[in-house]
Specification:
By secondary structure, this protein is mostly helical. It contains 22 helices and 5 strands. Among the domains are: 181 residues, no CATH class; 130 residues, 2-Layer Sandwich (Heat Shock Protein 90), CATH 3.30.565.10.
């Protein structure tokens, strides 16, 4: 496995620490607002959770505030989480009566609000953990399994994974390592799916514990070191403490006693720092066990006694019973073993002093057998060798046979132990291969699903674009057909009628009809020109629209001697749809024509600009103005408003006699 460069690791840790600090600072700012509502309750609950694994006193402080505010507001919102947190915190500090009190408060809350599933989940989970942490795992298991039934995996996968972890830990305490490993692996898979680092660190810790109990110490060490590293990066002081405890036990079992003691001492310091009474009790027990292995009975007895005092205070009767057994065994073993070994050594010494070499050799044989029965094979070999030197001339062959037999027993025992370990290792490897195969299949299926979904999305995007293009084309066709029918068609019909009248006219009015035909023809040509210009894609840019508007304004106003000012503030990359371009220009054209023909104005102000996601056109003159009520029956203003409506815009008019006229168009752009 490649190691992360030191600089990268430091940057990662700094980023995580900064993120956690930012979260706490944000929550503190929310609480400081004193909104006295559910938002403040949620902020207090999150603050308590953040400090649960760092500073229990601060965690309790915010939890008390949370419960007080909930009661003051007359709502049970936040009470269940608050009571559950206080049960766990008081139990960790060995305050069992207080923990029991808050558990009863939580139970009363659930009975009062039976339909509140979240409160029920809190109660069953808290009760299960309360009994488990007191060493009553058999009583706690049904509560934890019941709590799992209240969690919807699809809604809250994190809680679902956490409950699997709790159940796995309970099976671990009951010695059912098969079920424990099964639940721990399922929890790890779920936490990996939601990318929950804290949950993953807990699972790695507990899987390491499972391998430890199966005596797979190198594998256990690997998982535990991964867990320790992840917890350090998360700032989980309490979690790191747990990893140190188990790593100390691993090194104890692999005869790395000095390294084991280093980890136990670190764990003890951390437990005292966090004021975790029960964790302190368990660390002291582990230290007593290590010192017993190191043949330091006095120091071992001292640690066991300290541990038992704390275990009694915390109400862990199972740990108390276990310590008592160790103390009895320690007393018996130390006294009896020392007494028996001393007697045998004294007998050998007396025989040696008296010069009774045969008796001395016999004494060494007795010592060898005694050492062998106590599995102290090195001392057994040493005693046999001494016996062989003394009786080589008399019973050399017998000693050799006995030595070989003892050596063979030692090798057989070691071989059997290795076979058992190998079988366990093979079982775990098979389990790991099965899980790896399942992971590969899951990844393959996920990749195939992603590819299929991607192809479907691309195809759907193409179809939607094609459909949009067809709809746009159809809409343009309909617009052209309507304009041809409504405007140009009606005009051509008028020309046709006037031509016929002119042909039969006898009183000299034919010239008048021809003039009208010419005017109508010119208007048709102008309308057709506008229509062709509006649907030409080369005129999509706003620059083309503005150029045409300027040309038209110049053509109309200059021949009438009207002074005008045209200003625009538009982004050059703005593009309008064909509908927007056509209606904008036609509204502008109609407005300019009206100002030139009817307003008697000497000055006209034209402004075109963007306002957020809208385009605004304002045309204002200093003419005579008019009363809109007096021209209500006309088509001009109605046509302007209908064109504005076509582009989902709004047209407003401001005018009064002698006050000039101002028309403003406002419509949304992409």
């Amino acid at each position: 496995m490649k190691k992360i460069p030191i600089l990268t690791a430091l940057l990662f840790l700094a980023t995580v620490a900064h993120s956690q600090t930012a979260v706490i600072d944000s929550l503190l700012r929310e609480v400081a607002k004193h909104t006295r509502d559910t938002n403040e309750i949620r902020a207090l609950d999150h603050l308590s959770s953040e400090f649960m694994r760092k500073d229990l006193e601060k965690a309790k402080h915010y939890t008390y505030q949370q419960i007080t505010l909930s009661n003051a507001l007359g709502t049970h919102f936040g009470l269940a989480e608050g009571y559950a947190g206080l049960v766990a915190m008081h139990q960790d500090q060995g305050l069992i009566d207080s923990a029991q009190y808050y558990l009863e408060q939580l139970e009363m809350l659930v009975k009062k609000f039976p339909s509140d599933k979240k409160a029920s989940l809190n109660y069953f989970n808290t009760a299960g953990l309360f009994y488990k942490n007191q060493g009553k795992s058999k009583e706690g298991l049904p509560y934890l399994v019941k709590a799992l039934s209240f969690i919807d995996q699809n809604v809250n996968k994190t809680s679902y994974a956490g409950q699997h972890l709790n159940i796995g830990n309970t099976y671990y305490n009951l010695g059912d390592f098969k079920n424990a490993t099964d639940y721990h692996l399922r929890a790890l898979t779920l936490f990996e799916e939601v990318k929950n680092k804290r949950g993953q660190s807990f699972c790695l810790q507990n899987i390491g514990n499972d391998f430890f109990e199966l005596e797979q110490y190198p594998t256990a060490e690997k998982y535990l070191l991964q867990s320790e590293k992840m917890k350090e990066s998360l700032g989980d002081k309490r979690g790191v403490l747990t990893s140190w405890m188990t790593l100390g036990s691993v090194y104890q079992q692999t005869n790395k006693h000095e390294r084991s003691m280093v980890y136990f001492n670190k764990a003890l310091t951390r437990a005292k720092e966090l004021k975790l009474l029960m964790e302190e009790s368990r660390v002291l027990f582990n230290m007593g066990s290590l010192l017993k292995t190191m043949k330091k009975p006095d120091e071992s007895r001292k640690r066991f006694t300290e541990s038992m005092q704390l275990a009694r205070q915390g109400g862990d009767s199972v740990l108390v019973a276990r310590i008592q057994s160790y103390l009895v065994a320690l007393k018996r073993d130390v006294q009896e073993e020392k007494k028996e070994e001393l007697t045998l050594l004294q007998n050998v010494q007396i025989s040696l002093e008296k010069g009774a070499l045969s008796n001395t050799a016999e004494g060494h044989f007795g010592l060898a057998e005694w050492y062998a029965s106590h599995k102290q094979f090195e001392k057994a070999f040493a005693s046999l060798k001494r016996a062989q030197l003394l009786t080589d001339s008399i019973r050399g062959d017998a000693v050799l046979m006995q030595l070989k037999k003892l050596e063979e027993e030692y090798k057989n025992e070691k071989r059997e132990r290795e076979i058992v370990l190998l079988k366990k290792d093979q079982e775990l490897q098979a389990l790991a291969l099965s899980r790896q195969k399942l992971t590969i299949i899951s990844i393959a299926m996920a990749l195939i699903s992603v590819i299929v979904i991607g192809l479907l999305l691309v195809n759907r995007y193409r179809i939607m674009n094609k459909t949009k293009r067809l709809i746009e084309i159809e809409r343009v066709r309909n617009t052209i057909a309507r304009d041809l029918h409504d405007d140009i068609g009606s005009t051509l019909s008028s020309i046709n009628i006037m031509c016929r009248v002119a042909l039969v006219e006898e009183n000299g009015n034919a010239q008048n009809y021809l003039q009208r035909i010419g005017d109508q023809s010119a208007r048709i040509m102008e309308d057709i020109g506008d229509m062709v210009w509006s649907i030409n894609p080369r005129n999509d840019s706003i620059g083309q629209v503005i150029t045409r508007m300027r040309e038209f304004a110049t053509e109309i106003f200059e021949v009438r001697g009207i002074e005008y000012h045209f200003s625009e503030t538009i982004k050059s990359d703005l593009a309008l749809t064909a509908d927007q371009r056509k209606n904008l220009f036609l509204i502008f054209k109609e407005t300019v024509n009206n100002a030139a023909k009817y307003s008697e104005a000497r000055q006209v102000q034209i402004n075109l600009y963007q306002q957020n996601h809208a385009l605004v056109m304002r045309v204002k003159d200093n003419g005579k103005g008019f009363d809109e009520q007096s021209v209500k029956s006309g088509n001009g203003l109605r046509n302007l408003r209908e064109r504005a409506k076509e582009i989902k815009g709004e047209l407003t008019l401001k005018s009064g006699l002698g006050e000039g006229t101002e028309i403003e168009l406002h419509f949304h752009i992409a």
